[in-house]
Amino acid sequence: MIRICGLNKSFGTHHVLKNIDLEIGRGKVVVIIGPSGSGKSTLLRCINYLEEYEDGEITIEGQPTGRKFVEGRSTPIPQRELNRMRQEVGMVFQAFNLFPHKTVLENVAMAPIDLKNMNRTDAEARSRDLLRKVGLEEKAPVLPYSLSGGQKQRVAIARALAMQPKVMLFDEPTSSLDPEMVGEVLQVMRTLAEEGMTMAIVTHEMRFAREVADTIVVLDDGRIIEQGPPDKIFTQPDHLRTKEFLAKVLQVN
User: Which long-range contacts (CB under 8 A, 24 or more apart) does 221-229 make?
Assistant: First the structure.
């Protein structure tokens, strides 16, 4: 579903991602872990070209997402193609980014109406189904200020799903939540995994990563230092940096 080849990304003179090669199969869940500053969120944002990268290629179902190779050179794709691609990639951020002046239902229904020209009746019906899916159907008429952090994040997930994406990207979706709110968001993500949604997830929730991931990818200093099934990575990692990182985060958890 997702193929990343020779990805490089710099911020000024800081080389953040270094020759990343990664494949994510259809219906698979890949969890990206590693120390702060290793490039995890940047990698995720490159997939839908929220971060522009200067070299490499990322494709979803064989279609380039931000750049493509033309005569051996990496070249940006046209804006129309980029917009079409982004409609197929849902993303959930640390911040909820809900529109405060719109109801929960309006927040979820807006993108299908504006971007896919869905009529309002159909969009709202689908949005109610998605709110039911994340356990918030009764919150449809309220404004976001009245929701808890966990509820806001579940609305953000419903909003991303409203575009019927082929891929979901999660960038530390629980990092800004109080501990008691984390479980309700992770449960929604577990359900998506069970339903076969292709997902790439950056998270510090190691227990969750071990439960839902098909593959764990370990990033350090902008490079993938190892990847494999959760049991292998968590019990018999090959790389010293992986061992050091897991020793620290598992001790904290």
Answer: 221/18, 221/38, 221/39, 222/15, 222/16, 222/17, 222/18, 222/20, 222/38, 222/39, 223/18, 223/19, 223/20, 224/20, 224/21, 224/22, 227/22
